[in-house]
Amino acid sequence: MTEQELLENIIDIHTHYGPFGGFSFSPKEVMQKMRNIGIKKYAIMPAPMKNDNHIPDNHKVLEFMNQEGVEVIPILMTSPAMIKNDPLFKEVNNIPYKIIKIHPYAHNWNLYPDLVEVILKQAQLKNVPVMIHTGMDESQPNNFKTWFKNYPNIQFILAHGRPANQTKEILETYSNVWVDISFIEIKDIEIVSTEDNTDRILFGTDLPIPEIFFETSSEEYYNNRIKALIDNFGTETILKWGKYNTEKVLDIENT
Predict the structure, then answer these.
(1) Is pTM, for the whole model, over 0.85?
(2) In CATH, which of 3.40.50.1980, 3.30.460.10, 3.20.20.140, 1.10.150.240 is domain 3-249?
(3) I need a surface site. Which of 23, 151, 198, 225 has the fewest CB within 10 A?
């Protein structure tokens, strides 16, 4: 399988649109970047804004739908203000979201346990996974063990899988937890991707956010990232993470 064929078969489970870090990426701009790269399937959401009172612009994801030859999977970005304003999710009912995102670094979810429960119950009702931003701060995976335990029927996706050793232990303990490898260094992917865990690793890139951190184009970043992943893990493994595992967690194997 060529690199281009791989790109046409995998699903990038973690991409963004909108303002972030003083930059702004319009839907039109992001769509063009993905076409340039050659990705045919990707999940996308608004970029996070560090403000509990901000309501994410989830409806802009509808601009991505119905592209010829491209499948877009909406991710519903949440915030405390959004859930307070719309606890029944009526205002986003017209968005065919397949994942719900909680961002504990951008938002102080520890102050709103009742709102978190609202989100988890909605995910359970809709039978969709919950993606959680993780990092070396209040968003460490260990902080969410009660979620994994109390909601065994929800599939949780640890975005970025940081810190890696903690993520590895979580994956080994909870069978309903997955990790997407967006922004994870190769050495940390090696820690997480044990034989027991490889069935719950997902391909993601956080595009186009890497443009800001690495001062490069999305196209160049993607090319370098794919090459590094293939060199270290092999094409078949990346196909597994980016296609078969993702289809399984999203329950789209037979669609």
Answers:
(1) yes
(2) 3.20.20.140
(3) 23
